[in-house]
Amino acid sequence: MAKEKHPVTQAVRALRAAGIAFTPHSYDYVSGGGTAQVAAALGVDEHLVVKTLIMEDADARPLVVLMHGDRQVATQHLARAIGSKRVRPCAPEIAERHSGYRVGGTSPFGTRHPMPVYCERGILELPQIYINGGKRGFIIAVETRAALQLLQAQPLDLAVAG
Questions:
Q1: Which of 9, 44, 88, 150 has its CB surrounded by the most CB atoms within 10 Å?
Q2: How many C-beta atoms surround the C-beta of residue 50 within 10 A?
Q3: Looking at the DSSP assignment, which residues form a beta bridge with residue 73?
Q4: Which of helix, strand or coil describes residue 127?
Q5: Residue 118's domain is classified under what CATH number?
Q6: What global pTM score does this model have?
Q7: Other CB atoms within 10 Å distance of the CB of residue 62
Q8: Which of 136, 161, 139, 131 is nearest to 65 (CA)?
Q9: Contact 2, 129 (CB under 8 A)
Q10: How many domains, the chain?
């Protein structure tokens, strides 16, 4: 059996189990490089690179937020939409505990614990997204609708200029 060219992460396993096709892309991970680095490495618009954020509500319940790489989350809008007093990013060690992934390599697919997923509504307009595949330096290109359907992502208006 030939060695695969990409890592087999929990995200890859989840996508395969669901029968969702994806294209793997590896790049040289740089701490703090974020979606701008991914976009430059892959030669795509940063708006197409979707970041996976692990956040928590006022009761410390975790949730996943998917956002365009060139935008930020309007946490007050999100809190209102989910009926919470506030929403904030989890501390890295807490995010890693919830997701099972290291920060910088967090994928919304195959997380350690099930969490509700919210996505910026504008992501639905993209035919394909580039999103973390579950490891630093590993991005997958996947058809947007299939990915969001698998995640049961709830679209909301959450973006503010990055």
A1: 9
A2: 27
A3: 159
A4: coil
A5: 3.90.960.10
A6: 0.94
A7: 19
A8: 131
A9: no
A10: 1
Domain that holds residue 153: 27-129+142-161
Share in percent of the chain as helix, strand, coil (round to 5)? 30, 30, 40
CB-CB neighbours of 130 under 10 Å:
23
pLDDT in tens, 53-96: 999 999 999 999 999 999 999 999 999 999 999 999 999 999 99
Residue 108 lies in a domain: yes
**Residue whose pair of structure tokens reads 């970041």 in the numeric block:** 51
Both tokens assigned to 7: 């890592």
Overall average pLDDT of the 9-23 stretch: 97
Give the position of tokens 């703090």. 32
Domain assignment present for 96? yes
Pairing of strands 128-135, 49-57: parallel
Q: Which one-letter amino acid corresponds to residue 93?
A: E
